[in-house]
Design a protein that fits this description.
This protein is of the alpha/beta class. It has a single domain, classed as Ribonuclease Z/Hydroxyacylglutathione hydrolase-like (Metallo-beta-lactamase, Chain A), CATH 3.60.15. It is built from 8 helices and 14 strands. The strands form 2 sheets. It has a 7-stranded mixed β-sheet with strand order 6-5-4-3-2-1-14. It is globular and about 60 Å long. The chain binds zinc ion (2 copies). One zinc ion binds next to helix 2.
Length: 279
């Protein structure tokens, strides 16, 4: 299990990605539901400052400081630069927890900024990207990238033995090249991501507040049929719909039945409101 998430539009949203110890957003209830896993979190990436995405931060930081666990591990929080609400809130949290036992580091991020999670042979990093949500503040989505190596095109027809020979003679960089692979994309709240944003990502978390177009009053949240259009020919392997409005009841998956054909080669999951999601 790599992913734990809880999300209900307007109420709370958070996604925990355990391989990199990342929490995306920190809505209400995150500390309660993650329980002692809160000590494993190393990075928190906030998509924007709406209450349903940040209100669990205080409890998380406070609990981590006081409960039984590894209280000395540092915690890094990232957010879209210039977000006054988040800055005020973090200032307040620091003031109320002046006895913090761990380093709480806060980093405002610019559009396109990269945060390295691990360096070395196969570096991994997060890249922030702007999304359309509200006009009053900047909102981000986040990509998780891994740098991988592949055989250069001109050597692909050679045998293993020949490749090994070349590699021995001229070094491995001669036969292989590095490329960036998108492993995970989290949309945050948005009207809709762009095709280039979602292209070739393994796992796409896309907000899907509405299943019916007529339910959307303003152009700030996504609708299922637009997401279906968006992911066409993008090589996505897994689509996870989250930030779903509570109005669709206990069986929101019924809305997917109209799109069986479009979704036949994709693993689709729904983070149901009121239910802890694990994958
Ligand atoms: Zn929201
Ligand atoms: Zn929002």
């Amino acid at each position: 299990m790599n992913i734990i998430a809880y999300s209900k539009a307007l109420y709370t949203t958070w996604i925990y990605y355990s391989p990199e110890r990342i929490l995306f957003d920190a809505g209400e209830g995150v500390a309660t539901l993650l329980n002692n896993k809160i000590y494993a979190i190393k990075h928190i990436f906030l998509t924007h400052g709406h209450v349903d995405h940040i209100s669990g931060l205080w409890a998380l930081i406070n609990t981590r400081n006081n409960a039984m666990g590894d209280r000395e591990k540092e915690l890094n929080i990232y957010y879209p630069i210039g977000n006054k609400g988040i800055e005020e809130y973090l200032r307040f949290i620091k003031k109320m927890n002046s006895d913090l036992r761990f380093n709480l580091n806060v980093f405002p991020l610019k559009d396109g900024q990269i945060v390295y999670l691990r360096e070395g042979n196969q570096p991994k990093y997060i890249k922030a990207f702007s999304v359309v949500h509200t006009y009053s503040e900047k909102s981000f989505g986040y990509h998780l990238y891994e740098v991988r190596k592949r055989l250069k095109k001109e050597f692909q027809s050679l045998s293993q033995k020949e490749i090994a020979e070349l590699s021995r003679k001229y070094g491995s960089d001669y036969v292989s090249e590095k490329f960036e692979k998108k492993i995970l994309t989290v949309s945050g709240d948005t009207y809709l991501l762009k095709k280039e944003d979602v292209f070739d990502t393994d796992i796409l978390f896309h907000e899907c507040t509405f299943f019916k177009k007529e339910d959307r009053k303003y152009k700030n949240h996504a609708v299922l049929e637009d997401i279906i259009d968006l992911i066409k020919d993008t090589k996505i392997k897994t689509l996870i719909l989250y930030h779903i409005s509570g109005r669709y009841g206990k069986r929101p998956e019924r809305f997917l039945e109209n799109f069986k054909e479009e979704l036949k080669n994709i693993n689709v999951h729904i983070v149901k409101p009121d239910k802890l999601f694990k994958l």
